[in-house]
Amino acid sequence: MKQIMKRFFGLLTASIALGSCAKETATTDTDGNWQRRSDFEGIARSEGVSFVIDSKVYVGTGYDGTVRLGDIWAYDPDQNFWVQKASLPGIARSSAVAFTIDGKGYVGTGYDGTNKLKDFWQYDPTANTWQQKADFAGSSRYDAIGFSINTLGYVGTGYDGNYLKDLWQYDPTSDAWEQKVSMGGSKRTAATVFVYDNKAYVCTGNNNGATTSVNDLWVFDPTASTPWTEKRKISDVSDEDYDDAYAIERYNAASFVVNGKAYVCTGENGSLLSTVWEYDFATDTWIQKTAYEGLSRTGAIGFSVNNRGYLMTGRTVSAQFDDIMEFFPNAAVVAND
After folding, report:
1. Do residues 160 and 116 lie in contact, with contact meaning Cβ atoms separated by under 8 Å?
2. How far apart are CA 252 and CA 47, in angstroms?
3. Which region holds residue 154: left if phi is over 0, alpha if psi is between -120 and 50, else beta?
4. In 3-state terms, what secondary structure has residue 176?
C-alpha cells in the first residue's frame, strides 16, 4: 500500500507540474490580432443572427436592452460598409437561428419577450424580399442552433421550457421539416455550432440552468450511418497533459472558421469572457489565442466570409454593443488598430 501511495503522489506531482507549465504557456500566447472594422450601423444589440450569401453577411434581429428587433443589414467586408435591407416581416425577436441554402437566407424561432417562436422566413437578396415558409416542426424555442450542410438546413437544441438536444432537418425544395437523430451528451441552450468539411460541430452551452457550461463536443455528419460522434471533452478531464490549460466551457459564445481552424470566442461562464480558443479539426485539440480586444461580452455574433473571421455586437450586464472586429489568427498583436 505504501508503495502504491508513493507512486500515486509522484504521478500527481508530475501532473501538477505539467499542468502549471501548460497553463503558463496558454495565458501568455499572443498569436492572433483583432482589428476594428466599420461599426455596425444598426442599433447596438445582442442575441442577433447572421447568414452569409456570396461575399456579404446579413445581420439582424436581436435585443437592444429594451425591445426586440427585426431589422436586417448587409455588410460588405471588401468595401467595409453597411447597407440596410428589408426588415424581417415576422415578429421582432432575439435568440433566433439563421442559415443559408442556395443563395437564400433563412431566419426562424427565437423569443419576442413573451413568447417562444417557431415561424420561419426565407430572404431573397436579389429581390430584397422575405417569404414565409413552413413553420419549424419542432417545439417553439429560443437559443437553439441553426446551420446548413449542402442543400439542407438544420435546427436543434435550445429552450422551450425544457432544455433540448433534438435535431430537425429542413428541405427548401419541399418546404418540409423532418426530425433526425438527436445529438448525444447533454441537453443545452445557447450552444455554438460551426461547419467544416460538410460536418457540423456543436459545443458549449448551458444545461438545466447550471452555473457552469457543458463540456462535450459533438460532430454531426448527415451522410454517416451513425450521424453523431463525440470528440474529446473541452475541459481538463483526461489523464494526458494536452488539456491541462483548457478553459473553453461557456455559453452564449460566438464562433467562426478561418483557414481550416475553428474559433470559439467570448460568451459567459459565471462571468463575462473575452477569451478565444482555436480548434484543430485534424488533432481534435484546442489552443488559446489572443483574447478579443474589445470588452468582454456575451450574445455576440460570429461569422466568416471569404475565409475571414469576424465578431460583432453582444452585451455586458448593462451595455449593448455595435462594434465589429476582424480576427487574424496568425498575426502578432497590434494594440488599438
Report:
1. yes
2. 8
3. beta
4. strand
Beta strands 308-312 and 192-196, pairing class: unpaired
Low-confidence winner among 1-10, 85-94, 140-149, 221-230 (lowest mean pLDDT):
1-10
Grid-cell match 460568451, residue found = 267
Q: Give the whole-angstrom CA distance, residue 9 versus residue 62.
A: 52
Report the SS3 class of residue 144. coil
What amino acid occupies position 156?
Answer: G
Q: Which CATH architecture has domain 30-332?
A: 6 Propeller (2.120)
pLDDT digits (tens, 9 = 90+) for 273-308: 999 999 999 999 999 999 999 999 999 999 999 999
Amino acid 337: pLDDT: 80
> How far apart are the C-alpha atoms of 49 and 36, rounded to whole Å?
20
Which residues, 6 or more positions from 46, have their beta carbon under 8 angstroms from its beta carbon?
Answer: 62, 63, 94, 297, 298, 299, 300, 313, 314, 315, 320, 321
Retrieve residue 24's grid coordinates. 503558463
Pinpoint the alpha helices (H) of the chain.
2-27
At residue 1 the predicted structure's pLDDT band, cuts being 50, 70 and 90, is: very low
Q: How far apart are CA 37 and CA 30, in angstroms?
A: 21
- Which residues touch 269 (CB under 8 Å, ≥6 apart)? 212, 213, 249, 250, 251
Q: How many CA atoms lie within 13 A of 319 on its CB side?
A: 8
Q: Give 240's contacts (C-beta < 8 A, 6+ positions apart).
A: none
d(CA 287, CA 330): 12
- Give whole-number Cα distances, 100 to 97, 106, 319, in Å: 11, 6, 30
Cell 449593448 belongs to 320
pLDDT, tens digit (0-9, with 9 covering 90-100), for 103-134: 999 999 999 999 999 999 999 999 999 999 99
Domain range annotation of the chain: 30-332
If we measure between CA atoms, which residue out of 163, 131, 147 comes closest to residue 155? 147
